[in-house]
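Sharing a chain and its predicted structure for anyone who wants a worked example. Both blocks are below, sequence first, tokens second.
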Amino acid sequence: MGTVAHYLEVDASADTCYAWWRGLTNLPQILPDVESVTAVTDPAAGSAELTHWKVSGPLGKTVEWDAKIVEDVPGEKIAWASTGGDVANSGAVRFDDHGATTGVEVSLAYDPPAGVLGDAIAKLFADPQDKVEKALASFKSTIEAGTPA
């Protein structure tokens, strides 16, 4: 299993940062490999706590999975975990409110399968620390520019 985490300070309120991240559907804006994150309404829950992820994989293949938001504390934290699909993974984003600024920490854990698919997914997750750092830098630019979600 691999894990990565990164923290940085942004010039935006914790509520603004939380609102941008809340549905997870904005992630393709900051993660180039992520083609889409689509909200899926769960009839049992009556809300969009589920998401379907499509990620560009090696050799033109698309890797997909579903994830569920497992923790949601407005303005403080959002955590999700895969519920099926090609890659077992989980993640969280935490917001530390410092008034005019917010500390944002993203942490990810993933467990690629074995075999040929596992080799392909390992390439997809090549240098995940760098990808998370670049994604957070992109988020910082986006949120500080006031770009709408």
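Comments welcome. The first strand starts at residue 2 and ends at 10.
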